[in-house]
Design brief:
This protein has helices spanning about 1-20, 45-60, 75-85, 100-110, 140-155, 170-185, 205-215, 230-240, 260-265, 280-290, 310-315, and strands at about 30-40, 60-70, 90-95, 115-120, 135-140, 160-165, 190-200, 220-225, 250-255, 270-275, 300, 305. The chain is globular, with a radius of gyration of 20 Å. About 45% of the residues lie in helices and about 20% in strands. The chain contains 11 helices and 12 strands. The chain folds into 2 domains: about 25-135 and about 275-300, Response regulator (Rossmann fold, 3-Layer(aba) Sandwich), CATH 3.40.50; about 140-275, Rossmann fold. The strands form 2 sheets. Strands 2-1-3-4-5-11 form a 6-stranded parallel beta sheet, sandwiched between helices. The model has no long low-confidence stretch (mean pLDDT about 95). The structure holds beta-D-galactofuranose (GZL). GO terms for molecular function: carbohydrate binding. Pfam families: Peripla_BP_4 (PF13407).
């Protein structure tokens, strides 16, 4: 605990030395050199987000500087530092985890480069929107967890033995999807979260974690996955164990990928709460507003739909 406080107090010290400076502005011009520091490309969601940014670069007059941190927060930090050194006009950043990227965000600010956080945020106890970065463009992850829980409560009448597959440890979607879901479940005494373990938002890790947890908790009859990739992995593990997903074990998830909508149509998944990856156009419009001198709200919120057996077939053709 002492180490953790030391790290936080060191970060706060860095922040306070930078916090006094104003947020960098963005001059109006025809073309911009834009940095997009992707976390990894290990799942359809990430690939769809990157495609959205690369397509938007053509229509928004960006010279895009794209990097892929291959799942390493340390590499993402060095990717951001390299963008700063290249003198980009603006950086769009999905911080892989809430804390490791904080110093890089502050270094960009100190070099006069505005940062827009996209799809994940940083620890707002340390760095603030409107002071250290322009804004956070993204979904309400707590609400996504709440919606998943409420669907489950309605479906089961408030009963369930739950295994939870968490996203990347330390990432804002994992932290908040857990908080939103767990706080809702806690209101129902006949619902219990038997175990909660990270599958790192990855399909194969989700499968392996589920295999292990099923051996310890054979009575589990619900799996809540923080993203569809882990949910699909869990479905594979259930079927390998001779269980019928959607019948023996209910699956609730988040994202809205094509494979998830197909699993819903096939009766293997109950619900997936959308978490749209298509940030390119919103990034373009928000950046233009900022360059025009508009004051940007601290959270540019993305509205998400909910996919169930009632609408999955209607939306699967547009899914990624
Ligand atoms: C959510 C995003 C998450 C997705 C996962 O905004 O950060 O990361 O839900 C992805 O699929 O890996």
């Amino acid at each position: 605990m002492i180490f953790k406080m030391t790290v936080v107090s060191a970060l706060i010290a860095v922040v306070s030395s930078v916090a006094l400076a104003d947020l960098p502005t963005l001059e109006k011009k025809d073309r911009y050199k834009v940095g997009f520091a992707q976390t990894e490309s290990n799942n359809p969601w990430r690939i769809a987000e990157t495609k959205s940014f690369k397509e938007t670069a053509k229509t928004c007059n960006w010279d895009l500087v794209y990097t892929d941190a291959a799942g390493s927060a340390a590499k993402q930090v060095s990717d951001v530092d390299s963008m700063i050194a290249q003198g980009v006009d603006v950086i769009f950043l999905p911080p892989r985890e809430e804390r490791p990227l904080l110093p890089a965000v502050l270094r960009a600010k100190a070099q006069g480069i505005p940062v827009f956080l996209v799809d994940r945020s940083v620890d707002e106890k340390v760095a603030k929107p409107g002071r250290d970065y322009v804004t956070f463009l993204g979904s309400n992850f707590i609400e996504q967890g709440q919606i998943a829980a409420k669907w489950l409560i309605e479906k089961t009448g408030g009963k369930g033995m739950i295994l939870e597959l968490e996203g990347t440890t330390g990432s804002s979607p994992a932290n908040d999807r857990r908080k939103g879901f767990d706080d809702e479940i806690a209101k129902h005494p006949e619902m219990k979260i038997l175990a909660s373990q990270s599958g790192d938002f990855a399909r194969d890790k989700g499968r392996k974690v589920t295999e292990t947890l099923l051996q310890t908790y054979p009575n589990a009859n619900v799996i809540y996955a923080h993203n569809d990739e882990m949910a699909i992995g869990a479905i594979q593990a259930l079927e390998a164990a001779g269980k019928q997903p959607g019948k023996d074990v209910l699956i609730v998830s988040v994202d809205g990928t094509r494979d998830a909508l197909q699993a819903i149509i096939d009766g293997k998944m109950g619900v997936t709460v959308e978490s749209s990856p298509f940030f390119g156009p919103l990034a373009c419009s928000t950046m233009k507003r900022y360059a025009n001198g508009e004051k940007i709200e601290h959270w540019v919120r993305v509205k998400d739909r909910v996919f169930t057996i009632d609408n999955a077939a209607k939306y699967i053709d547009e899914a990624y």
